[in-house]
Amino acid sequence: AQSVAQPEDQVNVAEGNPLTVKCTYSVSGNPYLFWYVQYPNRGLQFLLKYITGDNLVKGSYGFEAEFNKSQTSFHLKKPSALVSDSALYFCAVRVYGNNRLAFGKGNQVVVIP
Amino acid sequence: DSGVTQTPKHLITATGQRVTLRCSPRSGDLSVYWYQQSLDQGLQFLIQYYNGEERAKGNILERFSAQQFPDLHSELNLSSLELGDSALYFCASSAVWSSGGSGELFFGEGSRLTVL
User: What is the pLDDT, as a whole number, of residue B101?
Assistant: First the structure.
């Protein structure tokens, strides 16, 4: 079954430093991978996706993600974190056979001023 | 704004009661998904509908049911409510792949249910 794992509960980073949020996946077949962000008391907002093509995917708000097939990873990155990036980040994978997404547990990102 | 509308935003009710959550998908989206978010369980998939038909079922309790109507809006019915049902319930919609959709789900702002 398709699944993703987000190994860290919380990521703390100083403002202006690079931000990385880790995600590994387990799929049979080609993975369709997604990142979402959730701000307090809000719904999930789509950031970016990997379907096929370039391993480096660029998304919203300056985020990008690197697909690595050999390491089965899809880490989210941002070169310079902002305090406003503090939020809950979810990695997700499309479940084969229908369009639903299976989500990881989420990572709380705290950007320290 | 994702284009997905959920009502009500907040709901407080007592154990044993029944509530209905409503979702209007993005214009043109045929698929609707319901997810439950709680602190201890994370984001759990409940059920999916496609053009009025149930397409996939996840960790949905027998006390819960859903349907999608001809105008494509969906309702999630929660009955015999328990304290543990307190959670944020999200609806999401997506376009079909054959009509240009590329897999991402668009989420509403959620309905926060508190069972006292």
Answer: 56
